[in-house]
């Protein structure tokens, strides 16, 4: 019932910026929380940022706080992740996820996922 499609990934030098987009479709998103996760090869899927669709209340992982900004556009049903001052350790596949409940930082708290978009930060 909910579809998420990420875009905007690519290759960037350390210190650069990228803006990821998550296009959402389905039923009303007012009750949903939307999050970005990332996963590097051989590593666990890691929480990045979360936003409440209705209120725009945000929450960030310590590793990205101050560098990344999550936002949403209700009219376009889009969620964005603005990534600044990128570091090589930010390299991962980035996923958009949505949850109707009280999910926060655990991947298993989110029921809907996009296909992921690759972000590679070179040094």
Please give a structural write-up.
With 123 residues, the protein is mainly beta. It is 0% helix and 50% strand. It has no helices and 11 strands. The protein has strands at 3-7, 10-13, 18-25, 33-39, 46-52, 58-60, 68-73, 78-83, 92-99, 112-113, 117-122. The strands form 2 sheets. Strands 2, 4, 5, 6, 9, 10 and 11 form a 7-stranded mixed sheet that branches. Strand 7 and strand 8 form a beta hairpin. The radius of gyration is 13 Å and the shape is globular.
What can be said about this structure in brief?
With about 120 residues, the protein is mainly β.
- What structural class do the secondary elements suggest? mainly beta
Number of strands: 11
Main sheet: strands, sense, barrel: 7 strands, mixed
Q: How big a fraction of the residues is strand?
A: over 45%
Radius of gyration, rounded? 13 Å
Give the helix level as a range of percent.
under 10%
End-to-end separation in angstroms reads 40 Å
Which stretches are poorly predicted, pLDDT < 50 over at least 5 residues?
A: none
Mean pLDDT: 93
From the spread of the alpha carbons, the general shape counts as globular
Helix-strand blueprint:
Blueprint: E1 3-7, E2 10-13, E3 18-25, E4 33-39, E5 46-52, E6 58-60, E7 68-73, E8 78-83, E9 92-99, E10 112-113, E11 117-122
Parallel strand pairs: 2-11
Antiparallel strand pairs: 1-3, 3-8, 4-5, 4-9, 5-6, 7-8, 9-10, 9-11
């Amino acid at each position: 019932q909910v579809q998420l499609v990420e875009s905007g990934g690519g290759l960037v030098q350390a210190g650069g910026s990228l803006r990821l987009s998550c296009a959402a479709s389905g039923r009303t998103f007012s009750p949903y929380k939307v999050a970005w996760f990332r996963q590097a090869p051989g590593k666990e899927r890691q929480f990045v940022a979360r936003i409440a669709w209705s209120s725009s209340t945000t929450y960030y992982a310590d590793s990205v706080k101050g560098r990344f900004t999550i936002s949403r556009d209700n009219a376009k049903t889009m969620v964005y992740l603005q990534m600044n001052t990128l570091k090589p350790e930010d390299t991962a596949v980035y996923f958009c996820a949505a949850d109707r409940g009280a999910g926060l930082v655990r991947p298993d708290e989110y029921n809907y996922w996009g296909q992921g978009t690759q972000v590679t930060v070179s040094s």
